Amino acid sequence: MSIFLSADSRILVQGMTGSEGRKHSQLMIDSGTNVVAGVTPGKGGRTQEFEGTDPRPVFDTVQEAVEATGADVSCLFVPASRAKDAALQAIDAGVRLVVVITEGIPVRDTVEFVARAKGSGTTRVIGPNCPGLITPDGSNVGIIPSSIARSGRIGLVSKSGTLTYQLMFELRDIGFSTCVGIGGDPVVGTSHIDCLEAFEQDPQTEAICLIGEIGGDAEERAAAHIRDHVTKPVVAYVAGFTAPEGRTMGHAGAIVSGSSGTAAAKMRAFQDVGVLVGSTPYETSVLMRRSLGQPAEEDRPVS
């Protein structure tokens, strides 16, 4: 089992013929993902060559690609100025999952396409400004390195791409059901809570690793949801304890204003509902092992 993505998912890549789209389409194909088509306006009717496999057809519109290939997932590698139109096109074509890798999208644009997706009743948006998601041994949509992914018992949801990779590496021997990078922008299509709900229902997922960061109140809301609705063990890490007040750190949403959105406040919210919180990624991995009854040989005392 997995959440949002499976080996049966049929992936199209918007922006496949650009440099980033080509590169990451190749990596997705190499990892076994069923990439069926690309979309680049003005290049419909052509094909895109890839090493070690058949070329993929390129279409002018998402609607044409969906009708021809049955694609049900779209991954966006398009410039920020065109991301809104690309996402709206995928949503209007009925694609059930739209993964927006692009960073730097104006918040107003994101609000528009996320609202369109929610109003559709059929489409989920992951991102923007995210690494995507991976179901190991199933499908990999985005830029997550498949080499550090192994199928297993942990569900991972993270605002940070880099920390997603690090925790996947730290816990690679136990493995993951699905890893979801939700993105760190002020507005995103899928929240921590959405993933917590899905992992709670997923029989393969035995424990959940949640990575948050400073800014906003998403982690506090996730803590309240865990208290009321999650029965599986949850281990968390919150990035940004040393971030200066008032400065954006890395992500557009990672900004602290006064006492709001601090890492300390988020850590307290998790601890108050029984979530174990690591002070470093390594410590977080140790706590996850302990929650699963599998302390590592190199386990060191954790305060």
Strand order of the largest sheet: 3-4-2-1-5-6-7
Mean pLDDT: 91
Provide the helix percentage.
25-40%
Structural class, from helix and strand content?
alpha/beta
Q: How many structural units, i.e. domains?
A: 2
State Rg. 19 Å
Shape: globular
Q: Figure out the total of helices.
A: 9
Can you tell me the residue ranges where pLDDT is under 50 for at least 5 consecutive residues? 251-259
Alpha carbon gap, first and last residue:
35 Å
Write the CATH fold name of the largest domain. Rossmann fold
Which percent range describes the beta-strand content? 15-25%
The CATH class of the largest domain, by name, is: Alpha Beta
Instruction: Give the name of the CATH architecture of the largest domain.
Output: 3-Layer(aba) Sandwich
Order of helix and strand elements from N to C terminus: EHEEEHEHEHEEEEHEHEHEHEH
- Largest sheet, described in full? 7 strands, mixed
The count of DSSP E runs of length 2 or more, i.e. the number of strands, is 14
The CATH superfamily of the largest domain turns out to be Succinyl-CoA synthetase domains
